Amino acid sequence: MLKTLPDDTILQTQGLTKEFLGFAAVSNVNLQVKRGSIHALIGPNGAGKTTVFNLLTKFIQPTQGHIQFNGIDITRESSVQVARRGMVRSFQISATFGHLTALENVRVALQRKRGDSFNFWSSVRRLDALNDRAMALLEEVDLRSFADTVAIEMPYGRKRALEIATTLALDPELMLLDEPTQGMGHEDVGRVVELIRKVSANRTILMVEHNLSVVESLCDTLTVLQRGSVLAEGNYATVSKDPRVLEAYVGVEA
Ligand SMILES: Nc1ncnc2c1ncn2[C@@H]1O[C@H](COP(=O)(O)OP(=O)(O)OP(=O)(O)O)[C@@H](O)[C@H]1O
Questions:
Q1: How far is the CA of 254 from the centre of ligand 1 (A)?
Q2: What is the pLDDT of residues 231-244, one digit of tens each?
Q3: d(CA 157, CA 14)
Q4: What percent of the chain has pLDDT over 90?
Q5: Mean pLDDT for all residues in the chain
Q6: How remote is the CA of residue 45 from the centroid of ligand 1, in Å?
Q7: What pLDDT, in 10s, does the model give residues 120-154?
Q8: Whose CA is nearest to atom 10 of ligand 1?
Q9: 48 CB under 6 A from ligand 1?
Q10: Which residues form a coiled coil (predicted)?
């Protein structure tokens, strides 16, 4: 039975479980994400973080449990419905079109929000009308100077920023970020951290992140998963001192 959602909770899971051939990748996870917060999902490799993300965005269906977004039961909805409701995931593997420029990528995403992305050729004039908005989004992620650069020629960190811009184009209320700093050098990590802080201003962010210093500097709440279950939850100061968490990470962070 679904419990009523407190008003400041944007996303809640109850008893969320996913089994693959009898193996519980996610087991009875009760998650509460507070509106306006930056919430991290952390845990050692294989803990179930990606599976939780796949369940939330409806890439896979849960074996058991419920998901509520803004008080609505979305457990049986499709990925498209969930995205339309305002929960949008920025992909770990680049979701941008490599041969389009940064500006074109954002324009396509804006068009997708309007639901007419397949009317590509006949809507060139309308696409041009979206230029201002697209430029503003590029500006927001500090990519104005890359507007005319094709995505495949952009440095890795900038490509990730472009992904964030294409996600922002959908105006998500809750943005899911899948390891946003993965594979980045120190300088890019700092830039993406600042970017996430900036774009979190009017929205909620749920992120999977391995880099604990990123989590420490950005996140209000951490949920630690281990072997598919919630091991600990709280702010960084509390969670990082939890002996169970320290044990779970022994050998992993070395
Ligand atoms: N489609 C699948 N079929 C079978 N097992 C799966 C499937 N997807 C995930 N698993 C298993 O579920 C467990 C959780 O995997 P998941 O990818 O969610 O972990 P993770 O915390 O995201 O790990 P990582 O940090 O390495 O990305 C792992 O043991 C994985 O092998």
A1: 21
A2: 999 999 999 999 99
A3: 35
A4: 70
A5: 89
A6: 8
A7: 554 566 666 788 999 999 999 999 999 999 999 99
A8: 25
A9: yes
A10: none
User: Same fold for the domain at 1-86+174-254 and the one at 88-171?
Assistant: yes
Residue 51 CB–ligand 1 contact under 6 Å: yes
Does domain 88-171 fall under CATH 3.40.50.300? My reply is: yes
Establish whether residue 46 lines the binding site of ligand 1, counting it when its CB lies within 6 angstroms of any ligand atom: yes
How far apart are the CA of 18 and the centre of ligand 1, in A?
A: 10
- Measured in angstroms, how far is the CA atom of residue 113 from the centroid of ligand 1? 31
| Number of other CB atoms surrounding residue 7 within 10 Å | 9
Say which CATH architecture domain 1-86+174-254 belongs to.
Answer: 3-Layer(aba) Sandwich (3.40)
User: Residue 6: CB within 6 Å of ligand 1?
Assistant: no
- CA nearest neighbour of 89 among 11, 167, 195: 167
Ligand 1 neighbour 59 (Cβ under 6 A):
no
DSSP 35-69: TT-EEEEE-STTSSHHHHHHHHTTSS--SEEEEEE
Cα 184 to Cα 189, 195, 200, 212, distances in angstroms: 6, 14, 20, 14
- What residue spans define the domains of the chain? 1-86+174-254, 88-171
Q: Whose CA is nearest to atom 29 of ligand 1?
A: 46
E strand or H helix at 221: strand 221-226
pLDDT of residue 139: 95
